[in-house]
Amino acid sequence: MLNQVALVAQTDKIVFSDLSVVAAAIQKQVSRDVSPLWNIQASVDAFAALDDVPLGYWHVLVDDTIPFDAGGIHLNDDNGQPYALVTYADDWSLTTSHEVIEMLVDPSGNRTVATNSPSPDQGRVLVLVETCDPSEAAKFGYTDRKSTRLN
After folding, report:
1. How many degrees, rounded to 5, is the angle at CA 95 between CA 4 and CA 65?
2. pLDDT in tens, 37-74
3. Using alpha carbons only, what angle is made at residue 99 by residues 94 and 105, rounded to the nearest 5 degrees?
4. Which pTM value belongs to this model?
5. Which residue(s) pair with 59 in the sheet?
6. Which of 25, 34, 55, 86 sees the fewest Cβ atoms within 10 Å?
7. For 110, what's the count of Cα atoms within 13 Å in the CB-facing half-sphere?
8. What are the φ/ψ torsions at residue 32 (nearest 5 degrees)?
9. CB neighbours of residue 110 within 10 Å
10. 5 DSSP β-pair partners
11. CA of 32: how far to CAs of 28, 37, 77, 91, 117, in Å?
12. Exposure of 49 by Cβ count < 10 A (0-12 exposed, 13-18 middle, 19+ buried)?
């Protein structure tokens, strides 16, 4: 199954050409790095406005502020459709990459796996699958040729 992801800037701080470069970089990242490990197929496309996004795409909206105390978050709407919100900042491309990958790997945002706790007195625990959290700091990210920051 091919998942389709739409990047839309709802801030005037991002020009469409920059949004397109980030979408292309994330597409490359998903195809080269995510797909082989997680068996996920996806297209990542930039759109100038939310009204331009065809039905069936998962939305990733970048705005000056979002209604959460976070740089980004992925959720599900009332119909169970995944979407993500990203707060505009200098590292918005890093946060967008982070949210796209986590949304693709765990569209419902509730996937857990059993593992040993780092706390010796807890034994086995369930942890949420947040694929980008271990590497989310900018120093662990990587860049494409145009210095687009990715997680």
Report:
1. 100
2. 889 999 999 999 999 999 999 999 999 999 988 899 99
3. 130
4. 0.82
5. 6, 83
6. 55
7. 5
8. -85, -40
9. 9
10. 44, 58
11. 6, 9, 29, 22, 31
12. exposed
Tokens of 141: 């990210």
- Whether the pLDDT of residue 4 is over 90: the answer is yes
DSSP-derived secondary structure for the chain: -EEEEEEEE-STTS-HHHHHHHHHHHHHHIIIIIHHHH--EEEEEEESSGGGSPTTPEEEEEES--SSSSSEEEEE-TTS-EEEEEE-STTHHHHHHHHHHHHHH-TTS--EEEEE-SSTTT-EEEEE--TTGGG-SGGG-EE-TT--EE-
Instruction: Count other C-beta atoms under 10 Å from residue 63's C-beta.
Output: 17
Tell me which amino acid residue 50 is: L
| Size (the chain), residues | 151
Dig out the tokens for 144 from the structure: 């494409």
Tokens of 133: 């959290």
